[in-house]
Structure formats: structure tokens, C-alpha cells
Write a structure and sequence with these properties.
alpha+beta, seven-stranded antiparallel sheet, 11% strand
Length: 389
Amino acid sequence: MSEYQYYEFQAIDRPLTKDELEGVRALSSRARISATHFVNEYHYGNFRGDERKLMEQLYDAHLYFANWGSRRLMLRLPTTLLPARNAEPYCAEDALTCWTRKGHLLLDFSYSSEDGGEWDFETSFSLASFTTLRTELAAGDLRPLYLAWLSALTRWELEEGVDKDEYTHAIEPPVPAGLAQLTGPQQALADFLHVDPHLLTAAARVGGAAPSPAIDKDALAAWIRALAPCEKDTLLLDAALGTAPQPGPTLLARHRAASRGMAEPSTASPRRSAAELLDAAHEVRSEHTRQQEQARDQARRAEQRAHESHLDRLAENAEQAWQDIAHLIGQKQPGPYDNAVTLLKDLREVHDRAGTPEEFARRLHALREQHRGKSSLMRRLTNAGLTAR
């Protein structure tokens, strides 16, 4: 069984310099490398670089996954957009860690299968699915961080041989609005981190509606006009030279903070313990199972009603059905043979319902005698249980 590992890095706020590119190329001779992108796949061996240092020094996003179940997503953004104090309440061992380096906050989302044996050859991801999370976080949307905490809670529940009291009494972090209406990148992150969907549903019962992504252009224009001219000049110069992160997300984050356009995490509602959330998730899961069973029962009943109606119509035209069977057999082809067998099985039910099974047996015996030289048909009849009684 071969292994597979995928590494991808992306520089978003600024491209790598020539010297930085040379340093990155020295780490791998087979990677696809540009001033903004690094991608490599390993079917044996390991990446020689240090992902943490590369993120601290060069890149703004990193994705890693292996076919035995290990997954990692790292994001970097300026602390002016997301201070560490806003992210720290959501950090949980083995799910999300954060730290600061040179004016940047680094977020490390991770997932690892419990037994290390989850060989998954079907799953693949792309960093492009997650990079928009940086913009969402910069705008004050903390749902990605809360999803990481839920991922940790999902794993805590599945762990064996540990003291459950260590985490079940833990209190959830502030609940962001909109957990019931995740964005596409947020749903991708929830899938990436194996967040229990029933736990997410339970968690979403607290908090308001999703924050609107719409921007009031008139209000934003008025706010920008009010900025000091020297500040605008600095922003434009940095943007032109690429010496600072792109000003767009920074300005939007500042505007939303000033206008309170982004819903804050819920602090008014009582914070729930991990145990309470897990109990609520169990209730959601049980209700979901009950609804699925109810839906299956309804589908079975509907199917049975449709079948009974079909048999009623067949009973009214039984003689025509026998003629249809003769016509199908006369075509001497596999498809018509199969259709003839299906129709015979239905006719058997019609005669059983009418209390005339002997009549069906007599006509079936005559049909088998008439076509006993057709081995393919005889085999189909026997396999369907259409033999003389």
C-alpha cells in the first residue's frame, strides 16, 4: 500500500523575492514553484522544509493532507486584521493553535485520524477552497475558528480510555452568528476537519443570522473620504510597491468595525458546556435517525401502494398480460426475456391474491413445456423461482 502526501503553499499578500524563491527551490527539485505558489506531491519520502517556518517567513496559506487521514491548513494574516486575543478562545489541542510572528497571526487547523490507519485514496483538496477564509476572518467573521473548536469536541467524544471530565465541563467559546448558514469555504473547512454535522446543528441553535456579505458602497466611500490624506498616501504607496499586505481587506475590516456591520460573537446567551453540546447533538442525531426511518417507511408504503395498484390493473387485463409474455419470449433476446420473467412474477401474485394459484401453475407449466428448448429463458425462469409446483 503506497503512501501519498500533498503540500501546497500560497503567497497572497506579496510575491516571493528572487532570493526567497531560490531558497524554496532548494527544498524540492520536483515541486511546481512560482513567486506565489508551491505545490508538491510525495508518493515516497517527505518534504524537507519546515512548514511552520515557511509560513512565518514567506507564505500566507498552506495545505497538507495524506492518504492515511492527516490534514493541516495554516493561514497567516496581519494582527491588525485579527488580533491573537480574538482567536485564542477557540484554540483547542490537536484542532487549532495560534501564535504571532512579526506582526502576523498564524492559525494552524489540523486533523489526524485516531488510529493512524484511515487510508483514504478518494479524498483530495485544493488550497483555493480555503484561501477565502482569510478574507472572512479579516472581516471579523470568526465562524472558521468556532468550527475548529467543534472539530476538537467531535474528537474528544470519540476518544477512548480518557477521563471525559477533562473536557465535558469545558465551556464553549463565544458563538459567532450564522453557524446555520456557512459559506462555501466554511463548509469545506467543516468537512476538512470532520466536524460532526449533528453537533454543528446543535451549536447553531445559539446565535443570530449569518452576517451579510453585502457592502454599502456609499457608506464605505464616505468613510474612506474621511481618512487622513497622509494615511491614504501611505496605503497607495504600500500597495504600489507591494511592501505591505493588500489594503483592501484591511480597509474593509476597519470599516466594518467602525460601522459595526459584522455581527459579533454571541455573549448574551448562556455559554454551554461541552457536555451540554454533546447531549444536544445526541438529540439532533436521534431525531435525524427517526426522520430517516419515517421517510423510509413512507417510501416503502408508497412503493407498496404503487405495486398493489399495478397488480390491480394487471388483474383486469390478465389475458392481455399472457399475450404480452408470449410476444416478449418470441423476440428471443435477453432484455425481452427479463421483461417476460418480471411480468410472470407479477401474474403469480395476481393469481395468489385471487386464490387461483393452480391456474397460474398450469399455465406456467404449459409455457415451460412450449419453450423448454430455450435454455437462456429456462435459466431465467428457474432463477426467479418460476418452476412447476
